[in-house]
């Protein structure tokens, strides 16, 4: 599997890409091509073009959860495909995979923080597979679906509200999910923000894939000014886990990265990063 970072908060020096506080990865496993999250704007499209990556033959679009820094790029992607159709440029209609609650209205202090396009509208442009259960995209790559919340230190505070059937409730991001690649050496976990809890995600990945070996985790760990209980619980978990290395980025603050770097090999992430796993 090959993974390229199309969008992250950071970019590498002397690599003239666009950065923004969001996530988007291009993933290829043999002939299958996957776009994981779309960031906040059209930056991922511009960066992909600079990297000579075509988005016209994507097989799957996977959305980790419904926040704006992961979904708002869907609008320029639809425009990208619509313009191709007008100009008679061939493109593949991808299957969009996400949790069923991903595209519900989300707000924080009465401000929109969720997707600005709902699933009904999306179904006019993409094949849709909204699933609480895990979904295998290839023989080695799986969308985890709804993550079991097993520990007592993660995902304990809601982030704003979500609206379902006309009723607004506290949002614990039940829609938050991740991808996992089953390599020959162990699991590679690919996250958006890990609102479900990075440790919960790891445990769920092990259960679904029936493999306890973790060789890498790339993505946001949702450790932005975390509570003492959450950070200590995460550090204690990682001390016990056998993880080869991590690429913690996006919503992982410096204090948390330093704490994690004391117990596991922490690698830098920026737009333009390429990773490959066998």
Can you put this structure into words, describing what you see?
The chain is of the alpha/beta class. It has a single domain (2-276), classed as Metallo-beta-lactamase, Chain A (4-Layer Sandwich), CATH 3.60.15.10. It contains seven helices and 18 strands. The strands form three sheets. It has a seven-stranded mixed sheet with strand order 8-5-4-3-2-1-18. A hairpin with a 4-residue loop joins β13 and β14 (187-191). The radius of gyration is 18 Å and the shape is globular.
Question: Any descriptors?
Answer:
278 residues, alpha/beta, Metallo-beta-lactamase, Chain A, 7-stranded mixed β-sheet
**Which structural class is indicated by helix and strand composition?**
alpha/beta
Number of helices: 7
Taking strands numbered 1, 2, ... along the chain, how are they ordered across the largest sheet?
A: 8-5-4-3-2-1-18
Low-confidence stretches: none
**Largest sheet report:** 7 strands, mixed
Give the CATH architecture. Answer: 4-Layer Sandwich
Oligomer classification: single chain
Per CATH, the superfamily is: Ribonuclease Z/Hydroxyacylglutathione hydrolase-like
Terminal Cα span: 6 Å
């Amino acid at each position: 599997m090959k993974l390229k970072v199309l969008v992250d908060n950071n970019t590498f020096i002397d690599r003239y890409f666009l950065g923004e506080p969001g996530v988007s990865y291009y993933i290829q496993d043999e002939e299958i091509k996957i776009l994981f999250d779309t960031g906040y704007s059209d930056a991922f499209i511009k960066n992909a073009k600079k990297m000579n990556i075509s988005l016209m033959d994507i097989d799957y679009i996977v959305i980790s959860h419904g926040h704006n820094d992961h979904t708002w790029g869907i609008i320029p992607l639809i425009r990208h495909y619509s313009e191709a159709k007008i100009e008679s440029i061939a493109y593949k209609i991808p299957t969009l995979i996400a949790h069923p609650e991903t595209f519900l209205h989300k707000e924080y202090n009465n401000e929109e923080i969720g997707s600005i396009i709902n699933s009904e509208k999306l179904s006019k442009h993409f094949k849709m597979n909204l699933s609480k259960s895990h979904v295998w995209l290839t023989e080695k790559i799986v969308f985890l679906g709804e993550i079991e919340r097993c520990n007592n230190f993660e995902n304990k505070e809601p982030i704003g509200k979500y609206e379902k059937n006309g009723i607004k409730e506290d949002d614990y991001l039940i829609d938050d999910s991740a991808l996992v690649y089953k390599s020959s050496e162990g699991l590679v976990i690919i996250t958006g923000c890990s609102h479900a809890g990075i440790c919960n995600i790891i445990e769920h990945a092990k259960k679904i894939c029936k493999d306890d070996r973790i060789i890498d985790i790339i993505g946001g760990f949702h450790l932005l000014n975390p509570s003492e209980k959450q950070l200590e619980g995460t550090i204690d978990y990682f001390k016990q886990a056998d993880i080869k290395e991590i690429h913690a980025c996006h919503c992982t603050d410096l204090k948390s990265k330093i704490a994690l770097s004391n117990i596991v090999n922490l690698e830098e992430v920026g737009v333009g990063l390429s990773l490959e796993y066998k």
